[in-house]
Amino acid sequence: MSRETLRERLEILADAAKYDASCASSGTAKRNSRDGKGLGSTEGMGICHAYAPDGRCISLLKLLLTNHCIFDCHYCVNRKSSNVRRARFTPQEVVDLTLSFYRRNYIEGLFLSSGIIRSADHTMAQLIEVARILREEHQFRGYIHLKTIPEADPELVAQAGLWADRVSINVELPTEQGLTRLAPDKNGPRIEGAMGNLQSAIVEAKDASRRFRAAPRFAPAGQSTQMIVGADGASDAQIVGKASTLYGRFGLRRVYYSAFSPIPDASAVLPLQRPPLLREHRLYQSDWLMRFYGYAPAEVQDAADAGGMLPLDIDPKLAWALKFRDRFPVDVNRAPREALLRVPGLGTKAVKAVLAARRHRTLRLEDIARLTVSVRKLRPFIVTADWRPTLLIDRADLRARLAPSPRQMELFA
Q1: Which residue among 131, 247, 306, 410 sits deepest, i.e. has the most Cβ atoms within 10 Å of its Cβ?
Q2: How many CB atoms lie under 10 A from the CB of residue 41?
Q3: Per-range mean pLDDT, top range of 17-21, 82-86, 133-137, 212-216
Q4: Domain with CATH 3.20.20.70 in the chain
């Protein structure tokens, strides 16, 4: 078979990278080349691939170094037994593509992952070489995210943090049983061991930077990971518990969720249909509750049903409030911040505005209505100067009243 052109390989390897969701670029240091030194930037607008917390759009060239792989993970379209078209870049070709796309103002950075070819060490060395050439030979100051390989030598994995803004290692599945059944070449303790090594290196680098001005930076945007949702039988409660453990043990910036997507020539052990995309969305909402709203993992798990699944028709915050109605209603003029954050429909910005406004005046229902898209969800859960829900919070049909109305699906959507 004739060798594919660069463009054909780009189409194959960019498409193969779409299954990895862990490419957000939040948390990196702001750098640019406006002083005439170096090349690239972690700031600016372009083709959107990821958003930082402050709203900046970081456009990333997202691809695989190769989709050849010596592993045979059942859920992976690039597993060694898959019948997909294969392609491969050299490190220099990825460098040239990155610079070319940057100069055309298409991207602000690079997200690079890879299948494992020859060995984990060989592949990891090639990934590192891409980042090294960009940083050292071209003074590239844009964002770089490297997907590291836990099976590689720990010293190689550590080198990735010297060149990349963010590093990540995918735990893949939330349970050890699922990983053993669907990814027999991977090892859960080894994956977490590699994450622990990276966390130690990040902490040491931060400590060194406080003491020495010239200390080398190490993965300033931290590390992240990804879990596949729906490939095994893990419940939402198990996934939430696993995510909480990872945040606590390894100081992760983000845990990303990727709904399992049926692949060509799929293994018989995989489900025939993908889970609802709304399930992935609910897991992200539960992640937000733990990270920004002060919910303990057990409280988020309490929002799930008896089978450990979060409801799809309502968000987990509302589901929790409906289960624990004794915590409501909350007086918006007197309640502490922690209680206000539990009110369905009130976000962190709205709570901040409530706390600031009530120092100067007593809040009425119309004041709260200005802070939210719809006051309908809030009414059963709050008390204001002119509103008290009386028995509304105890109504048996409260869930039905607050859940979104069912919509007829379009036949040709």
Answers
A1: 131
A2: 20
A3: 133-137
A4: 6-275
